Amino acid sequence: MKKRLTQNEEFEIMKLVLDKFLWVGTLIMLYGFYVLIKPYELGGKPLFDGILYVLAGAVVLVLFMILIVKEYEVIR
Question: Of 2, 41, 51, 64, which sits 20 to 30 A from 26 (CA to CA)?
Fold first, then answer.
């Protein structure tokens, strides 16, 4: 038989999972900002590549947010 979690326990687990997803998106965006500010002469990538990384990080954050909110609403 499976154990049932209380609403508070479900919320705490959701916060832990959401925190990890936020870190993934944040790290992608930070790498994009690093690419943006690294000078091209020192082996840096073009400006467009940095912008793409920042946008990719934002997309990851939005997708994970949608998935978590959708899952939380279904459980509730």
Answer: 41
Flag whether the pTM goes above 0.85.
Answer: no
Q: Can you read off the two tokens belonging to residue 42?
A: 């020192």
Can you list the alpha helix ranges (DSSP code H) found in the chain? 7-37, 47-75
Cα–Cα distance, 60 to 10 (Å, whole number): 23
Question: What is the largest distance, in Å, between two alpha-carbon atoms of the chain?
Answer: 62
Over residues 20-52, the pLDDT tens digits come to 878 888 999 999 888 888 866 666 667 888 889
| Degrees, nearest 5: CA angle 63-55-41 | 150
Q: Which of 67, 76, 53, 55 is nearest to 18 (CA)?
A: 67
